[in-house]
Amino acid sequence: MIFLDTDILINYFKGNKNIQSALLKHLQNGEDICTTTLNVYEIVKGFKYIGSEKKIKKLETFLNEIEVFNLNNQSMVEAAEIFTNLKKAGKTIGDMDILIATIVMQNNGILVSNNTRHFKNIQELQLTNWM
């Protein structure tokens, strides 16, 4: 499964050719394209802030075509463990990124993000960048 991070979704909707082409390639290969409810929140929040109902409608159409994963109780336990390990190692990242990474790992997915700096310290996370 390929999970799209918020920055990838934003750039997809801005018409980024690299992302559009990579997405098409993975779809043609029969791979599942997904995101998380946390990413949906982040992107909708941004679109609402700039007052772009048109982009929200496009997003809703897009989300109807992919699977959107949510947190569960086990996610919270695993996320807390990741946070603790990173904090003890002196490498902290935002809670939202930890939660997104946890969902991706629980589903044996690959996270596509341009924010590799945020995620690189989570060693178990499979990470790639289409930018």
Oligomeric composition of the shown chains: single chain
What is the SS-derived class?
Answer: alpha/beta
CATH superfamily heading? 5'-nuclease
Radius of gyration: 15 Å
Strand content: 5-15%
Looking at the overall shape, the CATH architecture is: 3-Layer(aba) Sandwich
Give keywords.
nuclease activity; metal-binding; 5-stranded parallel sheet; Rossmann fold; 7 helices; nuclease; alpha/beta; 131 residues; hydrolase; 5 strands; 12% strand; Ribonuclease VapC1
Protein described:
- The chain is of the alpha/beta class and 131 residues long.
- The chain has one domain (2-128): 5'-nuclease (Rossmann fold).
- It contains seven helices and five strands; from the N terminus they run E-H-H-E-H-H-E-H-H-E-H-E.
- It has helices spanning 6-13, 17-28, 37-49, 53-63, 73-88, 95-106, 116-119; strands at 2-4, 33-36, 67-69, 110-112, 126-128.
- It has a five-stranded parallel beta sheet with strand order 3-2-1-4-5.
- Strand 4 (110-112), helix 7 (116-119) and strand 5 (126-128) form a beta-alpha-beta unit.
- The longest helix has 16 residues, at 73-88.
- The two termini are 18 Å apart.
- The model has no long low-confidence stretch (mean pLDDT 95).
